[in-house]
Amino acid sequence: MAHEDDALEHERASWKPSPGLAVAVTDPVQPPALPPHRERITDKDPAAMKRAVRTVYTLFYLSVAASIWAVAAYMIFPIEDGQIVSIRDNNLFIGLGIALALLAIGVGAIHWSKAIMSDREFIEPRHATRGRDTTRTAVVEAFAVANEESGFGRRAMIRNSLFAALVASVIPGITLFRGLAPQNEDPVELLSHTMWKQGMRLAHDPSGEPIRAADITLGSAVHVIPEELASLGHAEGYLDQKAKAIVLLMRMLPEQITEAPDKKDWSYDGIVAYSKVCTHVGCPVALYEQQTHHLLCPCHQSQFDVSNGAAVIFGPAARPLPQLPITIDAEGYLIARSDFLEPVGPSFWERH
């Protein structure tokens, strides 16, 4: 049996096809070929190409006009009177201008890529992830080809109108942000003084009820406004004054507080009061963790240590929260010793 197996193996190894015998050879699977290129109407008709070019730069200039309209609407429809109709019109027309400006840029860019830029199909072979010595040259060549195919370098009207649309699109945002700043007044001076003054009682926000020191429990955090502010109701100037004077009141064990020598009498029996306005960009700091005595600003995660002068322990805030000096009156109500002794709010207002 073993001899038969050896003979069979020898026969298989020595077998060769006869000259007239066809042998099937299996080739590797080839990638499918690219489909035939279909020319667009703009490729075949110069007039259609000119119309497409005009459409694109018209959309870009329309974006410029919409951005200018958004700025004009900001001035045509002011909101200083506080009326709902004024606020509605202001938001509506500014929003329409900004939306149209961005939409025109997007539609123009898409039409440019679909109707004007080269749409020739090509195969890009894969290569090793490690760069070669010729990579820089290849990148320059790729940019040159992209410039040629897109027409960015030679189609001046499209290029210039795109630049104009992009520049104009940021103008409404700059205008709106400029409106947030005080007009014709020194912001440092405005933020250096609030409604707090010597003897003014601390009151609950928004009820305006005065606060007794005995009612503040250990570990609590109370939102506070000046008592006189509550009497204004929602009259003109109420929100401006509240935005500067808002305070957070907290209580801890007196021995847990580290106080600077010149601020020894700024707290009362473990009760401290700090401005709620973050010194980064002015967000309300109101998330209090009673175990660590940390205050967190929810906007950019600045953290302040209330037990150590509200010092910054994390985040982008540049300085501690301003402290309101407090004590009690003859009836046991918490009162302010004075106004804040430094400007409240973002530190950037103090830069010159």
TrEMBL record:
It is a multi-pass membrane protein. Coiled coil: none annotated. One of its GO terms (cellular component) is plasma membrane. Keywords: 2Fe-2S, Cell membrane, Disulfide bond, Electron transport, Iron, Iron-sulfur, Membrane, Metal-binding, Oxidoreductase, Respiratory chain, Transmembrane, Transmembrane helix, Transport. It is found in: Cell membrane. GO terms for molecular function: 2 iron, 2 sulfur cluster binding; metal ion binding; monooxygenase activity; oxidoreductase activity, acting on paired donors, with incorporation or reduction of molecular oxygen. It comes from the Bacteria. Pfam families: QcrA_N, Rieske. Residues 244-335 form the Rieske domain. Iron-sulfur subunit of the cytochrome bc1 complex, an essential component of the respiratory electron transport chain required for ATP synthesis. The bc1 complex catalyzes the oxidation of menaquinol and the reduction of cytochrome c in the respiratory chain. The bc1 complex operates through a Q-cycle mechanism that couples electron transfer to generation of the proton gradient that drives ATP synthesis. This is Cytochrome bc1 complex Rieske iron-sulfur subunit.
